[in-house]
Amino acid sequence: MVSSKDMAPDTSGYVSSFIKNQFFTKLPTTPKDIDLSGQVAIVTGANGGLGLESARHMLTLGLSHLVIAVRSVERGRAVVSKLQTSNPSAKIDVWSLEMESYQSIQAFVQRCEKELARIDMVILNAGVAETEFSLTSTGHEKVIQVNYLSTVLLAILLLPILKAKSPVGVTPRITVVNSIMSTYAKFPNQNKRPLLASFDDTKVTAWDPAERYNVSKLLGQLFLSRLADCIKPEDVVINMVEPGLTKTGLFRNLRGIAGVILNLIKSFSAKTAEEASLTYIDAVAVKGKESHGSFIANCEIHPLATFTYHNPEAKAITTQLWEETLDEFSFADARGILQALSNSGLVGLVKTPVSRQRGGGAESSQLASPPRAGKHTAPLSSLPGSRPPFSSAHSVRSSLRLYRCEAFYLPRTSLGVWPSLGGSGVDAAGARSQSVSQSEKQVEKPVEESAGSAGSVETAETA
Ligand SMILES: NC(=O)c1ccc[n+]([C@@H]2O[C@H](COP(=O)([O-])OP(=O)(O)OC[C@H]3O[C@@H](n4cnc5c(N)ncnc54)[C@H](OP(=O)(O)O)[C@@H]3O)[C@@H](O)[C@H]2O)c1
Prior knowledge:
- The C terminus is likely disordered.
- Helices cover 36% and strands 9% of the residues.
- It has twelve helices and ten strands.
- NADP nicotinamide-adenine-dinucleotide phosphate binds next to helix 2.
């Protein structure tokens, strides 16, 4: 099975890709043998849109315990009461998660660790598309914060918990909702240093709402495909999914002529959230280890954003992004978490944060990283009820084992030597492998927590 990064880039262009995806592609229905009974799933941003529909879909497949992670517990509770009526035997919880706050993310993860006996599937779906520039309490621009930074932080923090709690023979999965629009990011600030801070100042990077959404998804692809290189698919499968243009509230803030045009286009071309949720179920419950690190569109493994194939630029920028992002998450000991998981030493951690380096051909904008209110949070390991922190001896041992991930990263042919491309770029080998992945998902034992607790709605204000 060919993974996304070993495919040729998709050169089909926006219009032909859009027409093919929206009008000529019928999504496969979920295989009948997918049975989620006994399993536990988390869906972020599940009080509406695609998150809610995928949650509903998982419940119809027999899911035993669903945690919907929402920023408004009150609205989440209203949604849950409807889900509960149609699925009386499932345990459905509403937990607070504000993706603009690192503290909220840490508290959510801590709760997962403390209260969930196992976690089989996570769909990191919460996302925004904003028309106006704004900064969050972390000091970062909102779209980058929610769609990129907070999403990858949540993925990193959940990894060891998923691994530790998975029953023998079960491979847990994290599916991150991405977008085909990542391919259309122009990424004008790609050579600014530091890179992340360059999104936070409109004088450095001009505000363009569509570009910001697209690049937020591109950053996700760059980081997550590298993260997947550091994690064994036997421990946790990480993949990314594109749902296609869908009738949801995502672009609700788009006003004026652009809003009218988009609504018109959506009215005749967009999928319903129910239909598009098939893509989420495919990525999180049908696909298996063959999808690790890949981007899935129309339920098939698809090339990554075209930018990622531009060697060596993409490699250098990915390294910059990787190091700056891990620096950003030092308050949560993200490097330590990855070191501990990457027992084959694939994390490629560097001692001198790249974000503090200058030069090397990159444009040195001398941006000062502003103090981040949200950064002054505790490592998860120091929060009550969490595991002991990594010992320094352990860190030294792990560090000695480490060697740079770059040695493994993007070991692919340069753009110029790919054979004639044409078409969608979807390799025939991207075909689904349901039987393999289904067998991986065999459930060892039912969820103990569900017994006797069906129908409960639990709330937690953590932020
Ligand atoms: N719709 C499309 O055509 C399309 C296409 C490609 C990819 N996607 C992706 O699909 C995902 C779901 O979007 P959607 O189309 O279903 O849009 P949506 O209806 O607007 O849903 C977005 C969800 O994210 C939540 N969210 C936003 N900011 C949050 C924050 N700071 N903290 C916690 N939750 C937050 C929202 O909660 P509130 O209700 O509280 O705002 C909502 O539940 C997004 O990642 C989006 O980028 C959508």
